[in-house]
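Quick one:
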Amino acid sequence: MNQQPTLIPVDIQRTEPAPFGSADCTHYGIGFDGLPYILKRVENHNPLMPVAELLCSRMAAASQVPCATGHIANLPNGEQAFGSRAESGVLSPRHAAARLTTDATLLLKVAGTLSTIFAFDVFVRNVDRHFGNYLVRQTFAGPDLMAVDHSRALVVTGWPAKKIDLPKDCNTLLCQVVLRKKQALTQADAVAAIDRLLQLDDDWLSRNICDVPVAWWPTPQRQIVDRWWRRHRTKRLGRIRRRLINANL
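Output:
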């Protein structure tokens, strides 16, 4: 579990306006590797967005939560942004939402993944997991699903926080209401996700923030969060685990 950060950023050769109509993602980029990347910059309305995206991407990878791969991206103008590799063959957000709310066969196959993502979202305090923030695609092994978009998580939403419960009117919980009515969640998978997060060591955060640009996250703020990680993260994870086992989350 001693995952190290990707120290070599992705170099973007050109950027283009994004067709998503999202205030959080105004551009995408084409890397010198020929691949497209969804870009998240430091924005006035959400200056900590790239930090949240990068840390969630790395934490998800380290704890085996299905999530789009993310990198620090060097833009042509010298700016650094968060770059998430655009996945191919995925359903549009509208079609993904429709499948996840109506296709019982799909829900049965991805129930474990949905549960894993929910447990992760609770830990990182992600309040914006709406149905459009899942990537659904068909593979040779059948349909699969992964999480995207953590622009409203971690330090953006006040994490680390003592409270476990997410706001009742947030998109993450509104989605859970629908999924639970369809019995699309599995307790064992949610608990297993927390157990994998518990295996991350005391130095994991410091190793994975060492290359975060200072323009994204001033040093005093990251020191506070690193201190919390070392002293208090296992207590939060333990509380989440107990509540999942007791079906009280």
